[in-house]
Design goal:
The chain is mainly β. Among the domains are: 174 residues, Galactose-binding domain-like (Jelly Rolls), CATH 2.60.120.260; 108 residues, Immunoglobulin-like, CATH 2.60.40; 189 residues, Galactose-binding domain-like (Jelly Rolls, Sandwich), CATH 2.60.120.260. Helix content is 11%, strand content 36%. Strands 43, 45, 46, 48, 51, 53 and 54 form a seven-stranded antiparallel beta sheet that branches. It has a six-stranded antiparallel beta sheet with strand order 5-4-6-12-9-10. The chain has a six-stranded parallel beta sheet with strand order 31-28-27-26-25-34. A hairpin with a 2-residue loop joins strand 1 and strand 2. The longest helix has 17 residues. It is globular. Pfam families: Glyco_hydro_2, Glyco_hydro_2_C, Glyco_hydro_2_N.
Length: 950
């Protein structure tokens, strides 16, 4: 159905909802339905089941009635009614008409032409209704659906605080099937190409049948003869073999696509022909499907006393992220198949091979794209938020079983996560929240029950943040810790405490097996007092991954998170899916986010930045971490160099290379790199690359050093003389708001105004020896956040983020928005002794890994102060006509001005730098972009304002 909303017309989810089990005979019911709330719950007593709800209000299915895309956009608990008139005739003359719902939250009752055809309870599981007796094949039919959603404590709700799932929120469609038809087909694959198949047939007519499997790419043309009993469900089992199987993996996500066909003959009818087609007395049910041949196991490798994860018999390191699977307009329903495809592509683009889909059974079409494009999926079950009552347990098990059955054939799914962070598992006992022994035993039984349902995958009992596993195939833990030393010590502690019999990370009375150790949530966001708000991720992310790859026992991580959500700003991407800029290529062109997600990794064992003296020799241990055999047995080149920026010019001060023999999985030392630091104040960067003999980069990493001379005014390799003035040492400022940060090494100025420095230049003469004066400084725009104006600072502790509380990130005292596609430019004019001598566009107010000094000199670990912020190096040459006067008075007056928004400067800045497409909504809208100046221990250039006479 074509729907028009907000001047936009689109066909609502026109593709078949289940690409893993697709029939050709179907009718899409997505689109506009008549809708009404029933706050007094009077519909049942009136004629609503027959006539539908009164009124002309419409809703767009399949979007939650709380979401904007539904056209309703009201978060209302209670009862909602849907109705739609449909005329449709299935292809099979005497076949069945099946009404299918992807998911409805929470209880649904359905009528067709006034006949109650069925009901379902559970917000995440699919359900089908055979509506054949009520369906009019040659006329109009009225479908009426009553949904109630009261957020009861036993309901499986997941993380709906971001945006409530209410009512129909997954596709709805009609399906035509012959009397005898396939209900389910399950593939269990083996690495030798053997495929075991089982399933269920719905029988309405007894008789003989042939079940055929055709997968041309695998050379499969398999058939089995069946005798169908009286009406009911008939199981079947068979197997076939794919010759020379091509194994599914994230690097090669190969799918065997084909058809399963059920050909039924009534008793006494002729046999089917060789092609498997029934004669006129029979009927055919055909389902298009696919499978991938892959195997996931946890085993010991090469004599290690602990287990690793093996994909297709080889070790794999999981580079993963947490996906809340939330869309700002559709909430937990995606607007289109293309959007779901792009979600998986965005993961692949970052070099990730794993995603944990968080507390939400994923849309089958998004799982299809995970299968098709290649990403490993940890699939969470949705939790309930009340106590583990009998009602909650039974509702949970019913939905979990349905989800496991629905998603069994997706090769991308390698693990089921049954619970998260013990949510819903605490009971109130004597005024305390207690994880009771009875509940622990039940969780253990849930783990074992899931293993019986699906022995082909790993099962995790509870993704633990309270160190409270009971029995699990994965020994995972969560941490949100900020600060290099704290992260290093914590990860090392987790590794040291992981061994069979250890009680670490397990509930009281339970101990570890040798299950693989893996982090399943991590980041800095909750490791900062009051949360990190919207701040740079790149600095912490770099050293955290370096620590993960330093330990042989650790099998992977899940970073929180894929993209921002409504109250968390710690994603690789923004909520609108725009990019964040981590800044890594500035250190070396070979570096990017993908670099740190490669199976071959270079570990540089040390802090991300350390303070050293000019000319000091540093030593950096290097380790290899290898989880691919691509280069095993080969000699590779380990190449390194040290560079620093010298007033706008990159200088290489040390370099070297040697050959290393790259062999074996896991972590091993590669020796030390020894290098001399620059002889002046500098931010030195050590880049290490692993290259093939022909120069292709296999792995790369970097670390930094603040070369600190301690000389007042700095020590620089400059001919002539120089003088320095700190950014905070101004004599006058006319900005409406000004403040210092980072121990006074950064000065901020809001909106429009000017700041003036009186710079004394002792010993500058005589004039005959002076050729020129250049002024260097680091500057950026300054976006003013509410917290900067000291208004409405947010008390984060008072908000329940898990239940979806909304907070402006600009009110968080730790926020300094990370660099992204949005630009906040400012126009800077430079005056010397009252004459304008230069003007420049300051493109943004950025914060990312490039702000090394702003990170290195953070005053506290648990709080952030403009962390990662940095500017752009400015070089201003003073016109020669001004030099005599400057020499005569022995100094100069430097004024840095940001004119008012109407000056036209910022508009020119936006045009000149091509920033218009990326401008923030408030940029240039009545206020200027401000100014930030960075001193010796802030930003990325270790200097104050430097005046150089030469």
């Amino acid at each position: 159905m074509i729907v028009t909303m907000k001047d936009t017309t689109w066909e609502v989810r026109p593709e078949f909802p289940r690409p893993d089990f697709a029939r050709a005979d179907w009718h899409n019911l997505n689109g506009a339905w008549r809708f009404a709330f029933d706050p007094e719950d009077v519909g049942l007593a009136q004629s609503w089941p027959v006539d539908g709800p009164p009124g002309e209000r419409t809703i767009v299915v399949p979007f939650s009635w709380a979401s904007p895309l539904s056209g309703i956009g009201e978060d209302v608990r209670g009862v909602g009614w849907y109705t739609r008139d449909v005329a449709w005739q299935p292809q099979h003359r005497d076949g069945r008409v099946i009404l299918r719902f992807g998911a409805v939250d929470y209880r649904a009752d359905v009528w067709v032409n006034g006949v109650h055809v069925g009901s379902h309870e559970g917000g995440y599981a699919p359900f089908d209704l055979d509506i054949t007796p009520a369906w009019r094949r040659d006329g109009d039919n009225r479908i009426v659906v009553r949904v109630e959603d009261y957020d009861l404590p036993h309901q499986t709700r997941g993380k709906q605080g971001y945006g409530e799932i209410r009512g129909i929120w997954q596709p709805v469609w009609l399906e035509g099937r012959p009397a005898n038809h396939l209900l389910a087909v399950r593939f269990v694959t083996h690495l030798d190409g053997t495929v075991d198949v089982s399933g269920t047939i719905r029988v309405h007519r007894r008789g003989r049948a042939r079940l055929t499997f055709s997968f041309p790419d695998g050379g499969v043309a398999h058939a089995v003869e069946l005798a169908l009993p009286e009406a009911g469900e008939a199981p079947f089992a068979t197997s076939f073999r794919v010759e020379e199987p091509r194994l599914w993996s994230p690097d090669d996500p190969y799918l065997y696509e084909g058809v399963v066909r059920l050909c039924t003959m009534a008793d006494g009818a002729d046999e089917t022909d060789g092609a498997g087609e029934a004669d006129s007395a029979g009927e055919i049910d055909e389902v298009r499907t696919y499978f991938g041949i892959r195997e996931i196991r946890a085993e010991r490798w090469d004599g290690r006393p602990y287990r690793w994860l093996l994909l297709n018999g080889k070790p794999v390191f999981l580079n993963g992220t947490l996906d809340q699977s939330f869309h700002p307009e559709g909430f937990f329903t995606f607007p289109s198949d293309e959007v779901m495809r792009d979600e998986i592509w965005r993961l692949k683009r970052l070099g990730l091979n794993c995603v944990r889909i968080h507390i939400k059974p994923e849309d089958p079409r998004k799982l299809y794209w995970a299968d098709k494009l290649g990403i490993l999926v940890m699939a969470d079950m949705p939790c309930f938020w009340g106590e583990p009552t009998e009602a909650a347990r039974s509702a949970y098990l019913r939905e979990a079983e349905a989800v496991i059955h629905r998603d069994f054939n997706h090769p991308s799914i390698f693990a089921w996560v049954m619970f998260n962070e013990t949510w819903g598992l605490f009971s109130h006992v004597d005024g305390r929240r207690v994880y009771t022994e009875e509940t622990k035993a039940w969780v253990r039984e849930v783990y074992r029950w899931a293993k019986r349902l699906d022995p082909t995958r790993l099962v995790e009992d509870n993704s633990a943040c309270n160190y409270d596993h009971v029995e699990s195939d994965l020994n995972t833990w969560h941490f949100y810790i900020h600060g290099y030393e704290a992260v290093r010590d914590h990860v090392a502690h987790a590794v040291e405490r992981t061994y069979p019999g250890s009680d670490w990370n397990y509930a009281e009375g339970y101990v570890q097996s040798d299950a693989p150790l893996m982090n399943s949530e991590c980041g800095a966001v909750w490791g900062v007092e009051g949360s990190a708000g919207d701040s740079d991720l790149a600095w912490h992310y770099h050293y955290m991954l370096n620590e993960f790859r330093r330990h042989d026992k650790l099998c992977g991580f899940v970073f929180t998170e894929f993209h921002d959500v409504v109250n968390e700003w710690n994603g690789y991407y923004r909520l609108d899916r725009s990019d964040k800029d981590f800044g890594y290529p500035w250190f070396d062109p070979s570096l990017s986010l993908r670099t740190f997600h490669q199976p071959d990794f270079l570990v540089l064992d040390g802090p991300p930045c350390r303070t050293v003296k000019p000319g000091e020799t540093v030593r950096v241990p290097v380790w290899k971490s290898s989880f691919t055999d691509t280069h095993h047995g080969h000699d590779l080149r380990l190449r390194w160099y040290v560079w620093y920026d010298h007033f706008g010019q990159r200088r290489i001060v040390a370099a070297g290379e040697r050959m290393v023999h790259w062999d074996g999985y896991g972590v091993a030392p590669l020796g030390e790199i020894e290098a001399a630091m620059p002889g002046e104040d500098a931010l030195a960067v050590l880049v290490v690359r692993l290259e093939t003999p022909d120069g292709r980069v296999v792995a790369a990493n970097f670390t930094t050093f603040d070369v600190q001379s301690g000389v007042p005014g700095g020590q620089y390799d400059l001919p002539g003389r120089w003088w320095s003035v700190a950014p905070h040492a101004y004599t006058e400022a006319s900005f409406p708001l000004a403040w210092r940060a980072l121990g006074g090494h950064k000065a901020n100025f809001a909106h429009a105004g000017a700041v003036t420095y009186e710079v004394a230049l002792p010993g500058i003469g005589p004039l005959r020896q002076l050729n020129g004066i250049d002024i260097f400084f680091e500057a950026s725009a300054k976006m003013v956040l509410p917290k900067d104006e000291r208004r409405d600072a947010v008390d984060v502790a008072a908000h329940d983020y898990m239940q979806g509380d909304r907070v402006d990130p600009g009110r968080n005292p730790n926020s300094y928005f990370m660099t992204d596609e949005q630009r906040h430019p400012s126009w800077l004019e430079v005056y010397v002794d009252g004459e304008r001598v230069a003007a420049a566009c300051l493109p943004d107010d950025p914060a990312d890994a490039r702000g090394v000094l702003s990170w290195h000199y953070q005053p506290q670990t648990r709080r952030l102060e403009e962390a990662g912020s940095y500017g752009y190096l400015q070089r201003v040459t003073v016109p020669s006509r001004l030099l005599p006067r400057i020499v005569e008075k022995g100094g100069l007056t430097l004024t840095l001005a940001v004119p008012g928004a109407r000056s036209g400067g910022e508009a020119w800045c936006r045009r000149a730098d091509g920033l218009a497409a990326g401008l923030a909504a408030d940029a240039g809208a009545g206020q200027s972009g401000g100014l930030a100046l960075y001193g010796r221990n802030a930003g990325r250039y270790p200097m104050d304002i430097v005046v150089w006479g030469y």
